[in-house]
Each structure stands twice: as C-alpha cells, then as structure tokens.
Amino acid sequence: MSDLSAENPEEPDKRYRPLPTGTHGLDPEAVKRDQRERLQHAMIELIAQKGYPAVRIVDLARLAHVSQPTFYHLYADKEALFMCAYEEIAQRTAQTVMQAYSIEGPQGQRLRAGMRAFAQLAVADPEAMSLLVLGAFGAGTKPLEGRRRALEALEAGIRMSRDRASSRDPNDLTVRMILGGIREVTAARLRQGREVELAPLADELAAWAGSYPRQLPAGLSAPAATPPGAGDAAAIEPSERARRAEGRLPSGRSEMPRQFIVKSQRERIVDATAAIVAEKGLAALTIPEIARRANISHQTFYEIYDSKRDAFLGAQKIGLHQALQVAIKAYEDKRDDWPSAVAAGLRALIAFLASEPAHAHLSVVDTFAASPEAIEIRDTALHAFAAYLGPGYELSGGDGRVPAIAAEAIAGGIWQILHNYVANDCLASLPGAAPQITYMALTPFIGPERAAAAATA
What pLDDT sits at residue 106? Predict the structure, then answer.
C-alpha cells in the first residue's frame, strides 16, 4: 500500500495533491520526485508561517501528504530538506533571470529584461523569493553558506554576461553592488507584503544599475576578499570603544557609582556576545558562556538583559549606532562638499568595522540568522545611511535622471559588499575597497568621472 494519502478535499493548493494511491504503474523515481517537491513547498510555506525553528517534521509530512517514514527515506533531517528547497529556488531564479538577461541587445534593454523577470518571480511566489533573499531565521550556518553560494553563482553568471565585451577585473565589485541593491530593495518589500511594487520598480532598478560603466576606472580595483595572512590583523588599530573596553572594572565590590558599574557590565556583556557569535555562531550563544566571558554572575546578566536574544539585539544596536555615529561625524566635517563628505563618511565607517571585527560580524553577517527584530534594527541603520545620499539628487540636477530608488539600492549594495568581506574574514582588506565603494555610491548622482576623482582624492 502506498504511503500517499488520498487528496484532502479542503486543500485547494495543487502543490500538495498526491499522486494516485494503489497500483498505478508510475515510475518510482517520478513518485519520489513528486514527494520531494511537495515537501519542499511545505517547508517554504511553514517557514513563512511560523519560522524555521518552529517547523516540525510531523507538520511537514502532514501538509505535504506523505508519511514520516517516507520523509526520512527522502531526507536525512529538516535541515537537509531546507537546503534542497533553497537550492531549487536559487537554481530556478538564476535560470529565469539569466535567460532574460542573456538576450541580444543593448545593456539597458538586457538589464530591464532581467529585472522584470526577477520581479515577476517575486510577485508570483513571494514566500519562495523571501526565502531566497532573506534566508531563514534560526536555520544555522549551513543554510547561510548555501545562500552565499547561490548568490555567488548568480553573480558569476551575470558578470560573465555583462562583461562579455570587455576585459574582466575579478576585483570589480560592480555586479555585487548591483545584486546587493536589488536584493535589499526586494527583501524590504517582501517582508512588508509589498511585492506588487517590484514590477513597477524593475525599470528604476535597471536604470540605476545601468549608470555604472562596464569598465572600472583605473586605480579603483578593490583587494580580493580573501582571508588575511597571520600578521595582517595585528596591523588594524582597535576602535576607541575597544580601547576603552580594555580598562574594564575588576569583579567584586567597588566604591564607584552604580551607573558607572552597570555601564561597564553592559559593555562586557555586549563584547562577550559579539565575540561568541563571531567565533562559534549564533547557535552557540548561551547565557552561561556570556557570563563567563564577561566576568559577571548570572544574576548580573539578568539585571541587565532578560535573555540571550536581548543581549544579541543590544550588541547589534550598540555596534550599528557607533558605526553610524563615526560615519556621520566624518561626513559632517566635510558637509560643504557632498562628494567629499560621502567619501569621508564611508572611509570612517569601513575603518570602524575593520577595528571591531567581532561587532562587525555580529551586525553585518549574523543578523540574517537572528530574528525579524534584528533585521528591523539593521534596516533602520540602512535607512539612516541612505538619507545622507539624498543631496545627490539635487546635485544631479533634480531632473529625474537619477531614479528615486537609487539611494536605497546603493545603501543595500554597499551592505552586501561589506557582508562579503566580513563573512570571509577579510576585514584587513576592507579599507582597500573604500575607494571603489565610494565610487559606486557617487556614480549614479555625479557620473563616473567625478565619482572616481572624489573616491581617489
């Protein structure tokens, strides 16, 4: 007897309609393929409903109309199913976008075709596309690695097609910038249930992407995002906050004011949280480990934070706030010359991240595996950064030549470049990428020549 149950009359979704039961003469491989597809659809739907950690195998089997023994015959565990579902979405998206992008014609026409194809996918299946661009909170390191591989494969395909008429510079970050911007614009709307906006935005995003020349100006090649040598990290100056933290208070009784002691304890917790997550991953974060590294009692931890989740969010808020403040100060010092102000702000931001590797990893990389609240905190920082690109519209002439989505896309693209360097433990190389990042922030507003001059000044 087949383990496939009869079709549920209350289930209108054809994705979960099982094949006929009994003696049907179907190819066993076709039956397995059908079961896998139903389980993958069920995984996508349940993640959207309740989040990855809450998805149970019994729920997956029930929704997909397969038995639990069949589940374990097809997949080793929940994570294996997740990875297969994610890879299927990534492959389908890459094939659809590349097929549209690879048409013969001008670059602008190809960009519009690729963007429209991507937008259509997002509108047709927002749950699957949300999984592609956002990943799944709490899914662990393997899914994050799968997401990285999928995006890098798409980037490589577009790079090959985009640069087919010109020499390829492996350290040209333009394609990563464009994909990062598209990803962030898409993710923001999918999170808020506004995927219908993506189709009208496709041409705007294509116009923004088309503002970057296919040939990077001389002197702007970025260092490769490869891990530094053993001696490179030692050359990075620690931040002012990190130097201050070196003088932490000793444990035990103290005659210092209570508010001073609590501030020191909070900073110890924040640093311990960032260090644990950077070294071992979010799943390894525990309150006993935080307390041990911060040299505080469990009671002291609970006096400051209610949970390890709150400690993570606290560390993220502090890290992003300080990074943004450093960038804003550098920007304000050169406010009268907007291109120079943007360049100074970006250099300061990148230098700060390089000087705070643990906090950079927590804020830039681990956010995607944490929680929706972590994404909201990150988005607030991105919106604040994008606001400082606003004067660029007026500087461009204010004639509508620069699409309205440009600032949001640029902020998202820069975030994804930073993510790549931080995730690959290449913070020592990141300052060398500052000129090219600055060039890409300015080019849509003032053109490539002026942007290159400001970036290399």
Answer: 84
Q: Both tokens of residue 260?
A: 């001073």
Cβ atoms of 19 and 103 closer than 8 Å = no
Residue 234 · residue 355 · CB < 8 Å: no
DSSP-derived 3-state class of residue 142: helix
In a 13 Å sphere around the CA of 320, the CA atoms on its Cβ side amount to: 25
Taking alpha carbons only, the member of 82, 107, 233 closest to residue 158 is 107
Q: What is the per-residue pLDDT across 273-283, written as a single tens digit (0 to 9) for each?
A: 999 988 888 88
| Calpha distance 104→335 (Å, rounded) | 44
| Best CA proximity match to 146, nearest among 91, 225, 72 | 91
Residue in the block written with tokens 């991240």: 353
Sequence-separated (6 or more) residues with CB below 8 Å from residue 392: 338, 342, 402, 406, 407, 442, 444, 445, 446
* Radius of gyration of the CA atoms of the chain, in A: 24
Is 294 buried (19+), middle (13-18) or exposed (0-12) by CB count in 10 A? buried
Q: Tens digit of pLDDT for each residue in 201-256?
A: 999 999 999 999 988 888 888 888 766 554 444 456 666 666 555 545 555 555 55
CB atoms near residue 284 (< 10 Å): 10
All domains in the chain, ordered by first residue: 14-75 (1.10.10.60), 82-232+315-456 (no CATH)
The pLDDT value recorded for residue 456 is 92
Please tell me what DSSP assigns to residue 331. H
Instruction: Measure Cα distances from 295 to 202, 269, 302 in Å.
Output: 52, 9, 14
Q: How far apart are CA 3 and CA 405, in angstroms?
A: 51
Q: Say if residue 5's pLDDT is above 60.
A: no
pLDDT for residue 292: 93
273 closest CA partner among 324, 314, 321 = 314
For the segment 405-412, the average pLDDT, to the nearest whole number, is 96
Cα angle, residue 83 at apex, residues 81 and 87 outer, rounded to 5°: 120
Residue 68 to residues 32, 55, 61, 267, 338: CA-CA distances in angstroms? Answer: 14, 14, 6, 47, 61
Q: Are the CB atoms for 444 and 406 separated by under 8 Å?
A: yes
Q: How sure is the predictor about 372, in pLDDT bands with cuts at 50, 70 and 90?
A: confident
Strands (E), 141-255: none
pLDDT (0 to 100) of residue 245: 53
